[in-house]
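Handout, section 3.2

Students often ask what a structure token actually looks like in practice. Rather than define it abstractly, here is a full record for (4-O-methyl)-D-glucuronate--lignin esterase. The first block is the sequence as you would receive it.
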Amino acid sequence: MSVSQNLVRKDRKLQCSQNFGGIPKDFKLVKDTKLPDPFLFTDGTQVQSSDDWECRQQQIKELILRYELGYLPPKPDSLTANLTATTIKYGNLTIPTHNLNINATNGGTTISFSASIQYPASGQGPYPAVIAYGGPSIHVPPSVATIFLDNDLIAQQNSNASRGIGLFYDLYGVNATASAMTAWAVSRIIDALETMPEANINTTRLAVTGCSRNGKGALVAGALDERITLTIPQESGSGGDACWRLSDAEQAAGYVVQTSTEIVRENVWFSLTVDEFAPHNTSWLPFDHHMLAGLIAPRALLAIENTAYVWLSPQSSYGCMTAAHKIWEALGVPQNMGFTQDGNHSHCAFPAEQQPELTAFFERFLLDEMVDTTVFKTTNETFNETEWIDWEVPKLSS
Ligand code: MCU
């Protein structure tokens, strides 16, 4: 690329990020009963290149924060961190571990929290790591560190009465628009690790995971923080890798599934603005969750699902991720996004049948091994593409 082309590119990126990708001030919502076109800017022009896609991602991110997740405030005024050696008890076992202790100060208020790091038993580091909301319920390879974050402490998620409760709101105030999923502190953990060579973590090889409500959170974390290389939402269902419109349709077809109307009243994962689109007005949202997932592209995403629980809206997840996959196809990296949906197991009990694809994603994206990560499978769901997708998949130039 020539110097002048490079300058044009940089300039465009800067403009995009300053302008939320150029969303006009008088932006108006338009009803769209199908899954919205991820490749269409709000001014009606088409995404044609991977640079355009980055710009469109700025728009999508802004729209999702505005209408669904609430905004993440800027970094706190100061952030300090240290590492202490400690132990944890599992039954009779005492296991050595480390605490990453973080202090964040903003406007005169300081909060402190810790995440515990379980390092690999061998090897030298810097180690790749998986940050797990609430601890992992998938197998983490032995050469990868696990960082356990008690995200409930940062933003509580017990019920609808949890809004504004948690360390995040102590720091930024109870009226911060950020929903619990926006507030969970993955970005602050990465900020801390980036300044701590002694933590011996390779911050260019980070994954994030969580199951169920924490799976929704893992998807959001991967979507909002570009430093995450691999995102692994497990059984996130409605509000995660399912699409609002498809869940509404699943419900209309007689299945008892979770919809946006229910979710915004059940808990605080989303901001109150979602209420505007309930009940069942989700066709006015200028995005759906295929586009939330698309904020991750071209980085790696493996969405793990379970058909055993109708409430999770399994058909919607399959359809939604089928639509999302087209974004990675357009970018020429279809193998960076995988979907695996199995049945016959309890919620969050990861089955052996899905282990090969999980191993492949860890090997390829955290351990730099050249393995094949192509996977898109379900045991019994279907999706009628022509009913839901009326856009073409462009071949984006680089
Ligand atoms: C799958 O995630 C949620 C689900 O959205 C809720 O409706 C239900 O109450 O809890 C699930 C969960 O987090 O289970 C642990």
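Discussion prompt for tutorial groups: The radius of gyration is 20 Å. How would you have guessed this from the sequence alone?
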